[in-house]
């Protein structure tokens, strides 16, 4: 098998969508990863990168569109890196996400999993209740989260590019406000975003105007936005836009969060995710690990005599305690500690451990969880690969994987949330 060269054009058909946002086809037995392609497409593509086992390519021409290809709703799609699948009908997206989860269980986790994987879903547009707007200033600030300026040579080049595209090079140019361009840290100036909650999308012009009124030295790198029952709030404070707490209501509980706080971002499906994670669980004592602001802790207090919530991020733990007090959940004890610290010091054996770790998973805590040997465990994950890796270690340590279901918390993207339920053998 001869590898194609960078710049070479080839024709191929697209077989499926891949986790990571690419579509996958084959050319002479070699896997070809193509962004913004759809299953069933017949394409002419240009090779952009060659590896030993696969190549990457971009679409040069769509020779015949696949049956699931649709017109993207957002005018920025293809430039913006936020969405990968707007060009694919929603049913095809859901089927692909079931395959992502199954593939992770089989290939990464080594599980034999013949059962169907349900993918719960809601309205696929206007769902995002949280956003992080990036800001790239014409002054040459970096856009890689370092909050620093570019080296002088790169800064001058950035300023020259801005001047070349300006109608009047002598007129101060406003910052670019939006999201990273696909596959780069460059910022795309975004005028619309149909996956955002309406309160956030309609607030973009006001945020842009507020930033433009600041001195360049005061421009933030990132602006966090969140919407709730009473509208939207933005952080940090901007002229005419003071940061406020945002309120969400989930299963009858009131949650107060800051715009920067982590909270499940799909306003249409968060109730379903909580219900799916809790299932029919009941008992005396439950641990909620990586508890955040208490999304699962508060509903658990209706099912268990005691709930211990563990969170190590200071502001999240503070808000978690506020939410416990606001909702009068006396059964919930909130501890600020890492999960590993808590498990090392803990002297109790709970009936249930529920955990929702970050994208990297719970690998450091797995040995301690195996020592704890709780009879039931629920694992909520936003990454099927790290989930499958951790489930394999738990299964090897004495747990039986009973159920895995998916929740499409991020329509139009490749991301998928999972809830796995395990029982101690």
Main features:
10 helices; alpha/beta; OB fold (Dihydrolipoamide Acetyltransferase, E2P); 3 domains; 5-stranded mixed β-barrel; globular; 425 residues; Rossmann fold
Q: Would you kindly provide a written description of the structure presented here, covering whatever features stand out?
A:
By secondary structure, the chain is an alpha/beta fold. It has three domains: 69 residues, Nucleic acid-binding proteins (OB fold (Dihydrolipoamide Acetyltransferase, E2P)), CATH 2.40.50; 188 residues, Vaccinia Virus protein VP39 (Rossmann fold, 3-Layer(aba) Sandwich); 114 residues, OB fold (Dihydrolipoamide Acetyltransferase, E2P) (Beta Barrel), CATH 2.40.50. It is built from ten helices and 20 strands. The strands form four sheets. The protein has an eight-stranded mixed beta sheet, sandwiched between helices. It has a five-stranded mixed barrel with strand order 1-2-3-5-4. It has a five-stranded antiparallel beta sheet with strand order 9-8-7-10-11, with no helix packed on it. Strand 12 and strand 13 form a beta hairpin. Helix 1 packs parallel to helix 10. The longest helix has 19 residues. The radius of gyration is 23 Å and the shape is globular. About 2% of the residues have low confidence.
Helix amount: 10-25%
Task: Spell the H/E element sequence.
Answer: EEEEEHEEHEEHHEEEEHEHEHEHEHEHEE
Radius of gyration: 23 Å
* CATH class categorisation of the largest domain: Alpha Beta
Q: Write out the CATH superfamily name of the largest domain.
A: Vaccinia Virus protein VP39
Q: How much is the average pLDDT?
A: 92
Widest beta sheet: strand line-up? 6-19-20-18-17-14-15-16
Percent of residues in β-strands? 25-35%
Reported by name, the CATH topology of the largest domain is Rossmann fold
Regions with little confidence, pLDDT below 50 for 5+ residues: 140-148
CATH-defined architecture of the largest domain: 3-Layer(aba) Sandwich
Q: Which class do the helix and strand fractions yield? A: alpha/beta
Number of domains: 3
The general outline is globular
Write down how many β-strands occur, each being a DSSP E stretch of 2 or more residues. 20
Question: For the report, how would you describe the main beta sheet?
Answer: 8 strands, mixed
How many helices? The count is 10
Report how far the terminal alpha carbons are from each other.
48 Å
């Amino acid at each position: 098998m001869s590898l194609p060269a960078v710049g070479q054009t080839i024709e191929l058909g697209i077989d499926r969508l891949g986790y990571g946002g690419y579509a996958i086809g084959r050319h002479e037995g070699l896997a070809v990863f193509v962004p913004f392609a759809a299953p069933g497409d017949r394409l002419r593509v240009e090779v952009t990168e060659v590896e030993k086992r696969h190549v990457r390519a971009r679409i040069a021409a769509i020779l015949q569109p696949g049956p699931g290809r649709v017109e993207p709703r957002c005018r920025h799609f293809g430039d913006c890196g936020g969405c990968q699948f707007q060009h694919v009908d929603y049913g095809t997206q859901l089927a692909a996400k079931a395959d992502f989860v199954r593939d992770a269980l089989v290939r990464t986790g080594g599980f034999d999993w013949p059962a169907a994987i349900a993918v719960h879903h809601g309205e696929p547009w206007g769902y995002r209740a949280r956003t992080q707007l990036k800001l790239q200033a014409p002054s040459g600030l970096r856009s890689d989260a370092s909050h620093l300026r570019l080296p002088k040579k790169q800064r001058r080049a950035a300023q020259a590019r801005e001047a070349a595209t300006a109608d009047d090079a002598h007129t101060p140019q406003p910052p670019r406000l939006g999201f990273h361009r696909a596959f780069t840290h460059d910022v795309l100036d975004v005028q619309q975003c149909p996956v955002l909650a309406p309160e956030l999308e309609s607030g973009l012009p006001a945020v842009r105007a507020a930033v433009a009124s600041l001195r360049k030295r005061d421009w933030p790198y990132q602006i966090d936005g969140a919407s709730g029952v009473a509208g939207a709030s933005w952080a940090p404070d901007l002229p005419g836009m003071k940061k406020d707490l945002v309120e969400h209501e989930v299963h009858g509980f009131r949650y107060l969060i800051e715009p920067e706080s982590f909270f499940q971002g799909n306003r249409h499906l968060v109730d379903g995710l909580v219900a799916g994670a809790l299932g029919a669980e009941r008992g005396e004592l439950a641990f909620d690990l990586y508890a955040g602001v208490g999304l699962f802790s508060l509903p658990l207090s209706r099912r268990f005599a005691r709930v211990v919530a563990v969170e190590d991020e200071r502001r999240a733990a503070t808000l978690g305690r506020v939410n416990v007090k606001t909702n009068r959940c006396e059964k919930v004890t909130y501890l600020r500690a890492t999960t590993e610290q808590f498990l090392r010091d803990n002297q109790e054996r709970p009936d249930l451990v529920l955990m929702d770790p970050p994208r990297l998973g719970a690998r450091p805590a797995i040995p301690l969880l195996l020592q704890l040997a709780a009879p039931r465990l629920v694992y909520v994950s936003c990454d099927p690969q790290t989930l499958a890796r951790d489930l394999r270690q738990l299964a090897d340590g004495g747990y039986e994987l009973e159920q895995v279901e998916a929740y499409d918390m991020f329509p139009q993207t490749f991301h998928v949330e999972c809830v796995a339920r395990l029982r101690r053998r």
